[in-house]
Amino acid sequence: MLRLYNVSKVYPNGVTALDNVNLHVRRGDFLFLVGPSGAGKTTLARLVFREELPTRGQVIFNGKNIVRLRAREIPFHRRKIGMIFQDFRLLPQKNVFENVAFALEVTGASPKEIKKRVPEVLGLVGLEGKAKMFPHQLSGGEQQRVCVARALVNNPLLIIADEPTGNLDPETSWELMKLFQRINEQGTTIIMATHAWDIVNAMKKRVVALAQGRIVRDEESGAYSYGA
User: Fold this and answer.
1) Where does 1-70+184-222 sit in CATH, by number?
2) Which residue, 42, 88, 122, 212, has fewest beta-carbon neighbours within 10 Å?
3) What's 19-51 look like in SS3?
4) H/E stretch holding 10
5) Confidence class of residue 226 from pLDDT cuts 50, 70 and 90?
6) CA distance 126 to 90
C-alpha cells in the first residue's frame, strides 16, 4: 500500500528530518512509529498526507507516486487517508455530528450520504448519544473518539495517528487502542506515532523505530525499545 524509496527531507534551515528512509507498509498493517522527539515521525506522516514534499526520494501510495501529484489531485489523495492528532483539532462552534459531517462536506458528499454515514461512524466509536454535544461538553477521550470518527467517515485505506493518546489518561488510552484494534481488524491500515511504550509493548504490533531521521529498527511483534 505504501512505499518510501530513499526519502530524505531537509528543511530550509538546514535541519535534516529524514535521511534516506526506505519503508514498505502492507495493506492491513498496524504499525507503531517510535523514537525520540525530533526523530522524524511527524515529518514522515506529513509526507504521506502530502502536506510536505521530500527533498529527495519517492513516496508511493496505492500505486501512485504522490510526490508528482498535481494540486487538483491532492484532495482526492487525502480522502483515502484519515488523520488523527494529539490536540484533537475539532471545530469548537460545531457539534459532534457537524464536526464529523464536515469531513464529508469538503469532499462533496450529498446531504443524504452525510445523514446516513455520520451516525454509522458515531456508533462505531461509541458516541451514538453525543451527536448534538459540542467539543467543550466532552471529555478528552470522547473528543478523541470524535476525531477517530472524522478520520473514518470517508472510508480511508489508511489512518495516520500522531500521538493520539498523548493527552489522555491511561484507562482512556487503552479504550482508544481497543477501538483502533477493531478498526484495523476490519481492514484499515494504521500507522501510529507514539511515545507510549507501555501500549507498544503490550500490543506487540509491527514497530518501526526512528532516530535522527533514519530507520534503526523494523520488527514484527516488536517492543518500544530493547535498551539499545
Assistant:
1) 3.40.50.300
2) 212
3) EEEEEEECCCCEEEEECCCCCCHHHHHHHHHCC
4) strand 2-10
5) low
6) 17
3-state secondary structure of 77: helix
φ, ψ of residue 151 to 5 degrees: the values are -70, -30
Looking at the chain, the number of H-run helices and the number of E-run strands are: 7, 10
pTM (predicted TM-score) = 0.90
Closest CA to 191 of 224, 148, 162: 162
Cβ-based neighbours of 75, under 8 Å, separated by 6 or more: 106, 107
Query: For residues 161, 166, 167 and 169, what is the CA-based torsion angle, rounded to 10 degrees?
Result: 110
Burial 112-144, CB ≥16 within 10 A → b, else e: eebeebbeebbebbebeebbeebbeebeebbbb
Does 71 have pLDDT greater than 80? yes
Give all strands of the β-sheet with 158-162 in edge-to-edge order.
Answer: 81-85, 158-162, 189-193, 30-34, 206-211, 214-219
CA-nearest of 156, 189, 187, 180 to 78 is 156
Give the distance, in angstroms, between the CA of residue 48 and the centroid of all CA atoms in the same chain.
Answer: 10
Query: What does the domain layout of the chain look like in residue ranges?
Result: 1-70+184-222
Virtual torsion, Cα 64, 70, 76, 81, nearest 10 deg = 60
- Cell triple for residue 223? 517492543
Tell me which residue of 84, 91, 101 sits closest to 194, measured CA to CA: 84
Find where cell 515529518 sits: 43
Tens-digit pLDDT profile for residues 169-218? 888 889 889 999 999 999 999 999 999 999 999 999 999 999 999 999 99
